[in-house]
Amino acid sequence: ADPLRPSGVEVDLLEGFARTVDAEVVWEAGSEERLVGDLEAGKLDVVVGGLTARTPWSSHAAVTRPYASVPGETGQEELHVMLTPMGENAFLVELERYLLEQEVGG
After folding, report:
1. For residue 33, how many other CB atoms are within 10 A of its CB?
2. Which helix (H) or strand (E) holds 93?
3. Which of 23, 82, 86, 101 has its CA 20 to 30 A from that of 65?
4. 74 neighbors 65 (Cβ within 8 angstroms)
5. 16 burial class (0-12, 13-18, 19+ CB within 10 angstroms)?
6. Exposure string (b/e) for 44-69, b if CB count within 10 Å is 16 or more?
């Protein structure tokens, strides 16, 4: 395995979704602020990385329905979400449909 390549549930979900829409995934690392800025500028299609339903970025991006529930730092369940560009409703619906079809455990 490539140690520089991202891995995990979110990576698997996005790569699986990309196959269903015949898209290529290009991973971009960065701070949430920079990634959300790139999302708003149209440079990215999706932002993932442990974002929860309580994300402060909901006024800057469309937030998917939660796709996974994992224990948070306080012991309460955290609902994980992905961010997509505002106004890209068809894309958001397609991504959410895919996420709903997947059974993601915590």
Report:
1. 10
2. helix 89-101
3. 23
4. no
5. middle
6. bbbbbeebbeebebeebbbbbebbbe
The verdict on pTM exceeding 0.85 is yes
DSSP bridge pairs for 69: 79
User: Among all chains, which residue has been given the structure tokens 């006024």?
Assistant: 59
Residue type, 11: V
**Token duo for residue 65:** 């329905």
At 44-83, the pLDDT tens digits run: 999 998 899 999 999 999 999 998 888 878 888 889 999 9
Model confidence pLDDT, tens digit, residues 29-49: 999 999 999 999 999 999 998
Please give the Cα distance from 58 to 4 (Å, whole number): 29
DSSP category for residue 4: T
Residues 61 and 39: beta-carbon distance below 8 Å = yes
